[in-house]
Amino acid sequence: xxxxxxxxxxxxxxxxWRGTPAARCTCMRTIxxxxxxxxxxxxxxxxxxAGPASDAPVLACATxxxxxxxxxxxxxxxxxxxxxxxxxxxxxxxxxxxxPTTGAADFCVRANSRFAISAELAGYMPLIAPxxxxxxxxxxxxxxxxxxxxxxxxxxxxxSAGVACPPTTQGLVWVKTVLDQPSVPEIPxxxxxxxxxxxxxxxxxxxxxxxxxxLTATDPGWxxxxxxFAGDAAAxxxxxxxxxxxxxxxxxxxxxxxxxxxxxxxxxxxxxVMATCQ
Length: 278
Description:
CATH superfamily of the largest domain: Carboxypeptidase-like, regulatory domain
Order of helices and strands: HEEEEEEHEHEEEEEEEEE
Radius of gyration: 17 Å
Shape: globular
Number of helices: 3
CATH topology of the largest domain: Immunoglobulin-like
Structural class: mainly beta
Low-confidence stretches: 1-8, 14-54
Largest sheet: 9 strands, mixed
CATH class of the largest domain: Mainly Beta
Strand content: 25-35%
């Protein structure tokens, strides 16, 4: 999780950076979250926290729960910590936290189960991140960083498709398709050729980096697919890639039946998930 640095620009190439292959070697990847979704050059990122801060509070979680620590940051992993972000455990319904100057938000979540959080802050894209908990909080950076993207940046892709942004009555979903490399700290490289179908969606499209009507599946340089819903929904998104089986990526999406992921959709929010195919 995301990201969770899962939020940044909705048209990011690998949730991380744009630039030439040579430049990519020196640029840190950024996850959009919690996610997801930085760039090289003038937007190069500084080193993010590697994990939960040493001063993170020790939560008194139940025996069947684990503690999960998030740090909310501006735009990417190296962004400033954000105070005043409203972070809620929404599935199952639980506590809400308004972040202090450290950007910290800490929750107890049930072990070996799925959960989702929401993140809101004026001027930033409202976010939902569905995640899957195991026996302990993952060590990957994307699991404990929520990178909130500014609406002026995140809305570019949605507006190119004629979608009102930031959303009010509609619920938006961003699917990032990536290589099956769960140990990568942030976001793996994107994969193309993945098509999505979502029952009940009023629109599905792909970007390169804004909406490209010629695409019928994710672009290999970006790996971005999008779905628009009229309001709240418990959506099932089907993913397909020729001669491969697709599924939820790591802890960054809720797995569904074969070839599908389950996605919580809420009006006024953008849900970010990741998927992979093999």
